[in-house]
Amino acid sequence: MSNLSKPIPPAGGPSALEVEIRGKTFRGADGGDVRAIEEIAFQVAPASFATLIGPSGCGKTTTLRIILGLDPDFDGRLRLPDDGAGRIAAVFQEPRLLPWRSVEENVRLAMPDADAGRDIDQLLSILGLDEMRSRYPSELSLGLARRVALARAFAIRPSLLVLDEPFVSLDEQTATRLRTLLMEVWSARPTTALMVTHNLREAVQLSDRIIFLTERPSRIRGVHDLTTPRAERDSRWREATLSTVAKRYSGVL
Amino acid sequence: MRLDHSVTAERSIASRLGPGIVTVGSLAGLLAIWWIAAIVADSRVLPAPPAVAEAFWRDARTGELFFHLAMTLMRVAGAFVIAMVVGSAIGILLGMNREANRFFDPWLILFLNIPALVVIVLAYIWFGLNEVAAIGAIAVNKIPNVVVTLREGARALDRDLEEMAKVYRFGLAKTLRHVVLPQLQPYFAAASRSGISLIWKIALVVELLGRSNGVGFQINLYFQLFDVAAILAYTLAFVAVMLIIEFLLVQPFEAHSTRWRPKRARG
User: Fold this and answer.
1) I need a surface site. Which of A89, A163, B237, B250 has the fewest CB within 10 A?
2) Beta bridge partners of residue A224, listed in sequence order
3) In this structure, what DSSP letter does residue A161 have?
């Protein structure tokens, strides 16, 4: 799991993210129970980037919600990096910005009070949001709003970063640009990160570890570690890896 | 390009002046109808505008009119603040708590349907002919309406933003100020708009029944003297006060709190 592209000492918590969900059931609208998760257990090493991949409706988002503490009703246990002392940042499927606050206010509001006055110029400028500071979210395109959501997540210097399909419903060009930006900001201060996606290309480009899930009720189908440093991941490497992975886990591409 | 600019500039001036001209014209029309009707009727009970203006000056010169306006305004303001605060708190609570709502809904329907007059009379009997009973009675008449409006607002709160606030550890004060209250703003605006006009109408009845000053008291007095011009003078003076409040306080505040909305959606 060592990754040569990360010379900076890990800034995430010293302990790994450990997830162990032994069962999660939803009460359906008709009164019947729907079993969403059978058993999911995995770890994400400190300051590494992991991705959850699985078919639609397999409980990926549910897993993230459990990790975020938004759904306490499940069997199993969690161990957060830093043992929960650090902060968790989330980038949701929709940007979830406050429409009545400007871009800068949206970012600053998430920051802890002790940190309130900190300089976020560099972060905003890497993400290309310099000119947008005083704009309101309704004036932004989806791609820009997603960048603001990324800025908000990184601004709090989290010990765990959770991303739920952050590039969905963007055109490919914008999504690629955003992925590059995400890696740029993340590499500057690597933090333990867990992303949900159904885009295997994206997973192969970004992750140190890919966790495949089965259909509902979901289990772990397999775990694939990628040890090649990100800097050496050219398009040839990516195509080769994609076909290896696709061969091992049929139907994921 | 230049032509385009001047055309759009003209249009924007016209569209800015347009509503103002229409408003003035419409009010002038109403005044004309009143005037003609007064001349045709030629009766004590329908005085012409100059007679009303004269009655206005008569009471304005002595300061009497402003004293009574101020007393009514004080009651309206007091009752408005109480009704908004209490009504919003109850409304938000009921909107967020299904069980509480189920329990208190019949109470709400009951209070919505108690006539204003009954509340006022009971308040005076139970608490005496005093200021507290007067303002309290006005507020109680308005509270159920505020509750209903704010309950709808609380039901429509965005879960996604609430979760975002939770993940980013906003805390209670930050969540209220930056996440919850801005979402309720249109509901506050609706409740206060409908509230302020309802409240001043009820305030007059309250004054008529049990106070010795205020616009309602004066109207009762002039009713007994059969002085329609003075009644109209007091009514129009207070309507003018309410319009000034609308334009100087309510509308600028609303424009400020909805500045983030895309321009075309702004009312």
Assistant:
1) B250
2) A210
3) E
Residues B138/B206, Cβ–Cβ less than 8 Å: yes
- Taking the CA of residue A90 and the nearest CA in chain B, the distance in Å comes to 7
Q: Could you tell me the pLDDT band of residue B125, with boundaries at 50, 70 and 90? A: very high
Question: For residue A101, which residues of chain B lie inside 8 Å, CB to CB?
Answer: 178, 260
Query: Which residues 6+ apart lie within 8 Å of A120 measured at CB?
Result: A104, A107, A108, A111, A151, A155
Q: Over the stretch B76-97, which tens digit does the pLDDT of each residue have?
A: 999 999 999 999 999 999 998 8
Residue B143 and residue A244: Cα distance in Å, rounded?
A: 68
Please indicate if any CB of chain A lies within 8 Å of the CB of B161: yes
Complete DSSP assignment for A220-242: EEEEEE--S-GGG--HHHHHHHH
pLDDT digits (tens, 9 = 90+) for B23-77: 889 889 999 999 999 999 888 889 999 999 999 999 999 999 999 999 999 999 9
Q: With CB atoms and an 8 Å threshold, state whether B166 touches A152.
A: no
Q: Beta strand pairing status for A17-27 and A75-79?
A: antiparallel
Q: Are B165 and A97 in contact (CB under 8 A)?
A: no
Q: Are B164 and B157 in contact (CB under 8 A)?
A: no
The answer to whether the CB of B54 falls within 8 A of the CB of B228 is no
Backbone angles phi, psi at A77, to 5 degrees: -145, 160
Pairing assessment for the beta strands A192-197 and A160-164 based on DSSP bridges: parallel
Q: Does A78 touch chain B (CB under 8 A)?
A: no
Q: Which residues on chain A are in Cβ contact (under 8 Å) with B169? A: 87, 112
ipTM of predicted complex: 0.84
